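Hi R.,

Here's the chain you asked about this morning:
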Amino acid sequence: MTKLINHIVRRFTHQNAYLPKVKPNQNNFWGKINLAPRDPIISINHLYQQDSNPSKMNLSIGTYRTEDNQGYVFPSVRKAERKVFDVCKHLDKEYSPMEGFQPLTQEAFRLIFGDSSLEKSSITVQTMAGTGALDLGAAFLGKFFEGHKIVSISNPSWINHFFIFRNYNFDIKAYRYYDNARKTFDAEGFFNDINQLPDHSVILFQPCGHNPSAIELSLEQWNMVSRIVRRKNLLPFFDIAYHGLCSGNIDQDVRPIRLFAEHGHMMIVSQSFSKNMGLYSDRVGSLTILCESENEAYRVQSQLKNIIISKYICPPTQTGRLVATILLDKNLKEEWQKDLKNIAIRLLKTRKQLQERLDLFCPKHSDQWRTITEQKGIFWYSGLTSSQVEKLINDYSIYLCEDGRVNIAGLTPNNIDFFVNVLQEILD
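And here is the predicted structure, written out as tokens:
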């Protein structure tokens, strides 16, 4: 648990209640287990829920909120749920295939790669959302990757990237991505680092909606990356959690992945429908592995099934059927894509409003505010320090991540001015 979380927890809990002391018991098998560190984002969200301040703001957890600060259920999802219910009430509850609901896996592949001949020499399986896809991919690599058991991850990155690969005994290397001083993409550090990575190792990329920095590479830069990856014989592992929420266009957000496919890279792609369909608790995702031949894909699938059966036997059919219904129904898919575009437009509008207000009321920090519209997707990597974040939480009940990551979707017409006024107070 970070110092910030420790400090804030004391506002809501008594230390003795939080860490109860018990007498040692010789027959207790679990007596020496230490308290695990809390997930920093989930902990902040929990503290927000306990806060009784009517003006509290939650800018921490990465879920989309409406302008009324409510969770958003896609209309296409509601319509698909009704269709799925009408179908499922006549079906049994037998085990589904280990690889998942086939219409879902087919459409998940096509959503990433389009109508590609690569589908014949690839394998896609349904997973427990994006995290489950990452875990399954890491488990597969842990058993079968013949290169160095090293994975290189951007600095910064989502903390679960590190946890998952460490669970499968990978050594972790960090490549530079964000320049804290200039508050922008560290192009020089990035290319220097990936040029020096161990040959024949794994490199993890976020092709859009980078968490937490919200910084994206240009297509020209991705071309340069592809050449380095090819020369060093690296295996690219793409994690795409915010597909469609950055540009509002599902094809544009996967251009880096399709570029690598055009260049002939073998690769792994973990995909989530938690964010871009609002299915946070339904846990639907996919894992795709590109192979060199149909025969190789068949063998890879057999080993993935062996891993799946040892973890959860099979994924839930109903959630897979829900996503497949949206992707296969022309009208529902068009409605879903329109919703994604509207969300992206609203996020961009909020970014512009926030930057304009901060430039007006805090002009001394204008260099910091330019990042608001330079970055893309649901997050703003604000550059606020941990002490400033602590003050926002303790004094104003404005909850955001310790690293200064702000969920732009949590800013609404009703609270954006309050947020700007508070930033002005703590910075000036």
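One quick note: The mean pLDDT is 91.

Cheers,
M.
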